[in-house]
Design a protein that fits this description.
single chain; mainly beta; globular
Length: 225
């Protein structure tokens, strides 16, 4: 099962600003939300939707959550530089698949990217608009054998965040997983988290194993907190 076209980047046909001479095409795409109908950006952090499909389950599991960066830990040692910051994930338990929030957040945290450009990222010749922001788009290079597409949005100079991920698997309990950025509410000067390139490590693991790992024991959401 090939990964579905990225939901967010598919709306770029009306938003793309191609560089001079560029001949890139935006991914084929579905409906663009009318102006004023998009979800409001969170007061702080990055707002995501995660959708996970399990083999044998008719309905996908999903939840919305916010990634809130935490500040770097300051050291009293004048020589030692302060550590990078971190992040915490806050799930909206009022919606989504009941009793599956913790499981989904654990999966989603391994798929996040909030860091500067890496050798495995390439800038694309278009931008994506989030509210009043025009964000340059970067594509993540996927390892051989991985059926996935991942895109990053440049939120600030030297700060990229995952904006769209779609992956499918031929084996294992997990059939597919998607992650979509729905709102941006970062404070100016946000520091990249220490584990900000978790997505790259996960893609390498998928390449080695051919799957996204096991689903919850026993299947279904009963007992999953």
């Amino acid at each position: 099962m090939p990964p579905r076209a990225p939901r967010i980047l598919s709306s770029l046909l009306s938003l793309a600003l191609l560089a001079p001479g560029a001949r890139a095409q935006a991914p084929a795409a579905p409906q663009v939300q009318p102006p004023g109908k998009s979800r409001p950006a969170p007061a702080e952090g990055l707002r995501y939707l995660v959708v996970l499909r399990l083999r044998g389950e008719e309905k996908p599991w999903e939840t919305r959550f916010t990634v809130v960066p935490t500040p770097p830990i300051q050291s009293r040692n004048r020589v030692k530089k302060p550590r990078l910051g971190g992040w915490r994930l806050e799930s909206d338990r009022s919606q989504g698949t009941p009793n599956a929030h913790a499981f989904l957040l654990a999966r989603a945290e391994r798929l996040l990217y909030l860091s500067g450009p890496a050798p495995q990222t390439d800038q694309e010749p278009w931008v994506l608009r989030f509210g009043t922001r025009n964000c340059s788009v970067w594509k993540v290079q996927t390892p051989r054998g991985v059926k996935a597409e991942a895109y990053l949005a440049e939120l600030a100079p030297n700060l990229l965040a995952l904006c769209d991920l779609s992956a499918a698997f031929d084996k294992g309990d997990i059939l597919g997983i998607e992650l979509h950025l729905e709102g941006i509410g970062l404070k100016p000067g946000t520091a990249p988290p220490e584990d900000g390139t978790a997505l790259l490590t996960t893609l390498q693991r998928w390449s080695a194993t051919g799957s996204a790992g096991e689903g919850p024991s026993g299947g279904g959401t009963e007992g999953v907190q």
